[in-house]
Amino acid sequence: MAKLLEVRNLSTHFETEYGTVKAVDRVDIVVDEGDTLGIVGESGCGKTVLAISLMRLVPSPPGRIASGNIFFDGVDLLSLNDEKMRNIRGKDISMIFQEPMTSLNPVLRIGEQVSESIKLHQALGRKEAMNRAIEMLRLVGMPSPEKIILNYPHQMSGGMRQRVMIAMALCCGPRLMLADEPTTALDVTIQAQILDLINRLKRDSGTSVILITHDLGVIAEASQHVAIMYTGQIVEYAPVTELFSTPLHPYTRGLMESIPRIDDIPGQDGSLKAISGVVPSLYNLPNGCTFQDRCPNAMDICRENEPELKENSPGHRVHCWLYK
Amino acid sequence: MNKDLSNQPLIMKLTLIDIRELKKYFTVKAGFLSGNQNITKAVDGVSLRIFKGETLGLVGESGCGKSTLGRLILRLEEPTEGQIFFEEENIFNFSGVHLKDYRKKVQIIFQDPYASLNPRRTAGNTIGEPLLVNKIKFDKKEREDEIARMMDIVGLTREQKDRYPHEFSGGQRQRIGIARALVLRPKLIVADEPVSALDVSIQAQILNLLKELQKEFSLTYLFISHDLSVVRHISDRIAVMHFGRIVELAKNRELYENPLHPYTMELLSAVPIPDPKRKKQRPMQNVEIAGTMDTTKGCPFHPRCPVKVEMCYEDEPELKDRGDDHFVACHMEGCKIRCTNFESDLSVQ
Q1: Which of A48, B179, B181, B291 is geometrically suited to a Cys-Cys bond with B107, CB 3.0 to 4.6 A?
Q2: pTM of this prediction?
Q3: Residues 230-289 of A with CB under 8 A from B
């Protein structure tokens, strides 16, 4: 498969009064055409900043992309001027934001919001753009879209709003869709529908997806490759079946053991294996590996030197001294 | 094979809370100028018992009324109809000293540890405030000792007592909330989505802590959550709520292995399983369209139900015992057979 997106050595830093925060730290990812890459991590690990860096939407100041390249279809997005980037954003790369409750404009009707990017990117008139918007809303399973376009966001439920967000992201036929926690605020039954919808649209139109989530269940259902992020770095990267069958990094293993699973009854005393400690502050990261204080396998070398993201078996990379 | 929680006999099957035919309706103005009113039936005829020492899980989707039920138990809401008995006394008759006394016995852990702590109060003061309000341990030294003890118990260090909420992480804040709820030695704790705002690696820590505390202080929990995986790990019995009603109530293992209500089956099949080899096929149903259909008559679930029959359009089913403490509100006695498309791949090897 052809590479659609290749990110090399990407770092995004924020200058704050307490020092520089490396929110995204030397990240390498590849997304093939028609592929879904899942990015997993806990809050504050940099997964959302990675997504907005790819869209070149990092607020500057205080943020800046400190190093790296983002090749999209062979073109380095970081070398483009603002005008050219605007032509790509929303057309070739689109984004589904996390909170459907807050990321729609409350004072614009749904039809206007969905048709805005169609008018911008496809040079269609108002009426044609609106027709296209109705088509898109129908595609995402919205009942009677002709009426829905006249509604305001507050008249709709969370699941409906998320569908509107997806319709907006899809309306220009993007080649890459960034979905940032697209189902986190939703009920399980609605979440299941939205995931089915993303999978179906991907199959039908061949769009590549970067799916950002903290839910390993969602990853297992919807992605082909997985990157695990911790303190701004990718600590493990593998095909999805490989990651779930042989997780290598102690953090990945800890995550898998600590989640309560519906298909599994609790152990003898009913307790879960928790990862001890908390995520270190990005202002004050330790030398060496950033997971050292929570790691059950920490060695001397982990406190001194930082490991590299190295290939352990074909396609399976891990950022840990246990694997040399 | 692992020992299942639900198979352990409940130590004492004494009823702590007995909810009888409880209803809570909210009236919502339909429009700014119109005189029309819509009635939201948040809790609509719930009868439920909570036994001493157990954890009762209460699951359902947003808007099903599970938090309202929790708030009614805490007497933060007045019911439209019905009673709640706490140790055989109707809590809605309490007032004055009695009410204050009741509130000591029943405490809550809130969902969002970021919003539920006063940002201008130190951790120690937050934990110690219930003691002050209830005039227990009025002596400063005694109170300080008690606060320090509580902080030890929930896994905070004594040095953290003078810190403010913003200096703590989400998991630590939830620990403060737990210590505050625990300091009055309540009998019942209503935990309203206590881990849903926390990161996955922290969730397990808090769930384990809640379990330990239950043993240590012989607590009873009403554990409200939308997450069926979390509920499975902490509950002895589970009640499934839909549109203000309990539609199924069963022991933990029984509910997951032998669900009888089609809504429970739908919920269970919607949970993504973290195993890429077990991709499930779900029937694509349009949940929300169904939700707006007329449900004034018949079973409230019928617009979504895959196994409905004529009777479901007319009569509302009652919560009936199907044996072995498994209650279900569904006309289809044999709906399990009709629902063969639901493969219970959750059953344990």
Answers
A1: B181
A2: 0.83
A3: 240-241, 244, 254-256, 258-276, 278-279
